[in-house]
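Re-run with default settings, no changes from the original entry. Doing this only to confirm the output is reproducible before filing.
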Amino acid sequence: MDEEELKKLIANLIILPFETEWVEFKENVFNPDDIGEYISALANSACLHDKNEAFLVFGIEDKTHKIKGTKVNLKNKKVGNEELENWIARHLNPRVDYEILNLEFDNLPISMIKIYPSYNQPVRFKGTAFIRVGSYKKKLSNFPEKERKIWKRTQEYEFETGICQEDVDEDTVLKLIDYPSYFNLLDLNLPPNKQGILDKLREEKLIVKFGSSYHITNMGAILFAANLKTFESVSRKAIRVIFYEGRDRLKTIKEQAGNKGYASGFEGLVEFINDRLPANEELGRVFRKETKMYPEVAIRELLANALIHQDFTIKGAGPMVEIFVDRIEISNPGKPLIETLRFIDHSPISRNEKLASLLRRIGMCEERGSGIDKVISAIEVFQMPAPDFVTSENFFKVILYGPKTLRQMDRYDKTRACYQHCSLKYVSGEPMTNQSLRERFSIIKNNYSIVSRIISDTINEGLIKYFDPAGKSKKYAKYIPFWA
């Protein structure tokens, strides 16, 4: 926010009622633990009262809301040798997004924290959740009904319908939203007038009418922003692409963050990445041609998955593509809703269904959840190592490996490829055999024993099993995934 926007914000805050549970005013008393507890309390109160933001403001008298100025400069404060912002973040769970902002109002210094609520769970500071009750900060555990309502709100929250920018006029909507991309991607005729365009954007829930003005929804901004930087609450969700010089993160060659909304900028994103990936030169009958090291369909599908299935409630983190000399890592915030071993066969589940539905209509993602199937199938055609799916509590990552010979692959590479091949064969209506896996690895028939060992290792890992456990012939044995 620039200086003028901050001044308008302060002007709006000081005219609020004196017992507003998502705003706290202070003057000069600074205590790090107290601030951490207030961030917890204000974030939880904002969630409870369906507010997009909460505020802790130094320099305003609490009882009168008069501007007094403050000696506290939150940006310069430290706890020990650690900056206040980092110290507080370490003690918050989940790590809600917040900003420390300084300004002058009527020539008096103001220092404030702008806090975004969490929609995963109540926010705790040093293991304890707090809540505002009137103008007082209390432990949330003492108010079980409020805690129950917060949990209920976290379960009902839909990112797409949240408001990203409030009270903008018609011309501002058409300036901030890349509406030509919307009509082009859906193959719709552009309405002949401004009102027709706005009506269509409203119908799609990209904007909401509010009196004589409009609110822009999160879905409108994240998918069709002309520039994501103009939308403060989702600007950090812009996808970052980083190219590294070697196999580690020590030296960055190039880093770029996307500016456009996901839908309007997707083709440009795919092209930007593919144009910079290494290629192999093949000699055809007449002309030489280049073949990219990584299949484009795999890049496209994994990018779409990272954008669509991320957890937007995790603040301060967005999708990222990291490109090394030997691999590509595509990551997004949030733990997958499906167990990674079941990606190939499981029915699709999305935590952002409205967003996913619109992008299916655009053709950016798959209707039947077959995107991962396409990725693995393309990787097998290129005879590359199987992709690896890595998950934790707060992020998900897919690793695409560059070409490796069978000798260069370790045991995990081989069993992972065997399991994915077996799963892909099964969903295609046939079991895996020694022959099909030999073809996947490009191993000649005489070396079938190598594949037999890979199959045996994968069985021992509990990832595949015999199609007919009673069968006596190992040579003609068939295999299916463990869940079949």
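The chain has a mean pLDDT of 90. The CA atoms of residues 415 and 461 lie 8 Å apart.
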